[in-house]
Amino acid sequence: ARGRPLAEAPANQGVLRVQTYDWRPGSVGGLGAELVVAEETATEAMWVTSHSYEAEPPMQRRALSSRPAPAAAFSAPAPSKRRLEDDQAMLLKAIWDRPRYRSERFDLLPTEGEHSCFVGYQHMVTATDRCGGWAREYPPVGGSLVFLNTGIYRRSQFTLKAVVAGLINVWLEEGSTALHEDVSIKAAKIYTNQYDVEELRPAPGSESWMDHECKMMGPMPFMYTCSNRINILVQECQRENAWVVPHDFLQNYPGPATNESVPNHDIVFYMCQEYLDRNPNPYWAASIFAHELAHVIQGGFGYSFNTMSEGGATWLEGPLLNLPPRPMVFAWGFRDWNRILAAHIYANTKELNSRKFYQIHGMFLAYLSQPQLLGPHAASALQGYETFDRAHVPFGRSSFDYFLKHLGAGEPPTFEPVHLDVHGPHFPFADALLNYRVAMVSQCILEPALRPSAPEYQMPGSVQERPYWDCSSFPTYWSESGTAVERASTDIHYGGAAVSRLMLPLNPTVSIAADADPRVRTKVLAAGVVGGPAAEVRELAPGESATFEGTREVYVVQVNVDPSGEVLAPEDMPPLWKWTKYGCEDPCEGKAWWAGSRKGRGYRPDQRSGLRTPPIELPEAADNLELSFYAKWDMEGEDADSTILGPGCFKRGWDGVQVRAHFTDAEGKETVTVLTPDEGYGEGPNKESAIAVFAELNPNAADCALLEGYTGSSSGKWRLQHVPLQQFAGKTISLEWFFASDVSGAGEGFWLDRIVVMSGSDRIFSDGASNDLTPVTLVDSPTAGAVGSTDGVPVVAAMPPSYAADISLRKAKQSLAAPWSASWTPGSAGSDAAVRRSYLGWSYQAPDDDTKTARLHPDQEACVRHAAPFRGHLRSATLFSLVDKIGVSAVGLAIRAAAAPHGLVEGQTPHVSASSGVQDPGMHRFVLGTAKSPVFAEGEAFLLCVGVAEVRPLPADDPNSLPFLHLPLTNVSTAADPAASGATMLLFTPAATPGAEAGASPVQTTGPDPWAGHTFVLRVEFVEESVDFTPSTLAAAALGGGFLAKSGGD
């Protein structure tokens, strides 16, 4: 998580509870009696980015909450000697090669031998005045410093336990254990590949995960810390989590740390002791290092939106480091794969998509990183497109449409921003989302030669044979069970998808209903036919149809690409101001204007809303012109400190309300003036007066008065306000109460009543009725091509006038549908189209916040009972796993007899799937068919068993840890019924003793239900066998041993 977790999880997120079952072998053979159940309780993580959809931690705000260093302490980089707007080369670098752009701005020249994460550091501290001759130093190993523990917010003593590779300081808080020290140091050694093993070299030319991460994403932000080490703080958190806080290294932005900076003002990553207690796997901890330090790199370039930041870090921890992608079954549970698929593309809550945005966006970036599409460097530029200019922070399509416009073409020769099309469903992001889903389902086609060959319909080669989605979860229509599908339809949210499978219909025709919503685009993928037509992908609009010749495996892929799905038009933005009785008590009369949300609730974030009077003509000869009104306010609490905003103004608070006057001068130019009440807007304890949100909206303010406003609270009291208007005598003005809030933190709002404008004793205006004032919602979307004032990064895309990005996801629950139908010719008896098929096994499902997992050790097999629905064989079996493992290099699938002693089916040997490297692939697909599967009679029972097929220790493995494979568990009501499908057990199957008779190895079992109503996730496609068959193989089954055939080694 990018930021600091809250002490308590917000109500809509809660706590994730994970139980891991671990049957550990006893000392006297067999399974022994020790069942270890490890329980994880992980609080929902929060983070600080520009557009946070959840509550921001009260302690950590934006880069605004910083105390700049004295001007003499650093030299800020100059944007350029030329106008940045006119320097095409610099603009392109700022977008497509941000690390090089930053290096040139800071004059960071490389020194031979420097690590990729700190390229330019030596030159910066020795040949520039960026750090004023100062560089951070650390105590020797064994020394200590006082850091802020950001888990429970206390200052605590941390001891430096190791400096790994001269790059990573490993600090342990008082009270840490030997396990914490051992695992964290090993993880740092894995991350830097101090073991010098090929498994930790992710790409040619990269020596370690750390090296490759910085080569692909950019160096660490050392120019803000004057330090060349990463600091891992292992601390007590009272929850299981890990995070970084960008404010740590940006405390003096745009300047660097100084000799007065606190120890946390550095490149810091926080790792909870509780996390290491629950999973002391150093490879897993090292992948967490990689994910969180990706956020450090991102934070050094500015701010983006959460799904892009987390998607980038999740891509990094997986395919970008040549590691498996994070499985969909990791962390939060879910009940329905299709609900996740159809959810809003930026959804990130349990309610909307079980927080699977990490995986979905990580895989989307992996898809885009293919050389024929964006390529890895351009995909990295996309996820790293960030800015420190608060008004220019990108969101959604404002990043995607620009980069995807150049899909397959590379970096353009000149910079041309894009203007978002909010009316038609054909735009770059829409094309990519649809093709990404087609590529995803193409993985479901077992034979590679029958998949589409176009690069936009393929996933990267490293994952092509290992679908990260459960292909059996799609609604499936078996060709033998009918000849038509009528108006199938799914409600799809913006950017979400729906997929349906037609299994081998003959000459199928797919049609889209004429009344289908055109904002849902549909592509139909028809797999190729051996010796016949190649795979085809056709897009169908409403009212169109397509016929595919032959017996084809067909997928109907639909995506909601509503062009207004992530933007707010004026009519989508309900006014903040309301005419209401709520909150109106004496001296308020009847009703008042209220800028708020609902009774007892905080106002919405990112509001820009005014309440304006009609034009008021002020007499030229007016005497003592004055505005008076009663006001009451409950804004975000005051937070006065020495942060400097604008022209040397000290910050008083975050959100605010200003009184303004609008008038038009003789030349027709509208002028807005911030008015100040007679008694002012109030001050902090040290005369702080500026409001942060007004500083963001007016970065070029020349006077602190332009940044002042009502903030904090009026203590529940109505207060009479007087504002002089004499300067406007003889003019026609409109008065406005302008309300602005930032991305988080809120009170109930601002109330206004009894508005009067007087000229001496003459009343010029009063608000006698609600229609005397007009709410106005303002939009401050950035201008395409505008250049950031502090970092020079241009805005690559812009909304149409009066449109705003839907950063609060107000449209997240809106959905669209496009009904489709299909028909096909009945197949002749015995043909593929007439053969019965069925799925066996249970797809993953678990409560959102209560999941179960299990570890399998060598010589253990997890087995689940099945019964053949008809005479037939297994076509394929897909096992879903978690990626963390130790010492396992292959996974096996065995087909065993249902009756004790559960021997291997006659003629069968275990089927093996590789698990290369330091992480498991996350899924194993076993392609069986008649050549590898026995034929079962209808109703015949059998066991499918999985386990460790090969072990291979690595230098970083803990010699005291058993090798293990980690499996997610799914709910099954029949797990404890030994005679029912779903019955689950563990077998202990030690390898045969040398010289013993074949098949004589003992097979022991835990008995049914070792995981308390759960089984592992193994999905099987079962196909009818049309030839005559006498079921004798199971009756003659050999006892058989386990399938741990060999152990690899160094």
Give a verbal description of the structure:
The structure is a single chain. The protein is an alpha+beta fold. The chain contains 16 helices and 52 strands. Strands 41, 43, 44, 46, 48, 49 and 52 form a seven-stranded mixed β-sheet that branches. Strands 3-4-5-6-8-7 form a six-stranded mixed β-sheet. Strands 20, 21, 24, 30, 32 and 33 form a six-stranded antiparallel β-sheet that branches. β25 and β26 form a beta hairpin. The two termini are 36 Å apart.
Mean pLDDT: 88
Work out the oligomeric state of the chains in this entry: single chain
Number of strands: 52
Q: What is the straight-line distance between the termini?
A: 36 Å
Beta-strand content estimate? 25-35%
Report the sheet with the most strands, covering strand number, pairing sense and barrel closure: 7 strands, mixed
In short:
The chain is built from 16 helices and 52 strands. It is α+β, with helices and mostly antiparallel strands and 1050 residues long. Strands 41, 43, 44, 46, 48, 49 and 52 form a seven-stranded mixed beta sheet that branches. A six-stranded mixed beta sheet has the order 3-4-5-6-8-7.
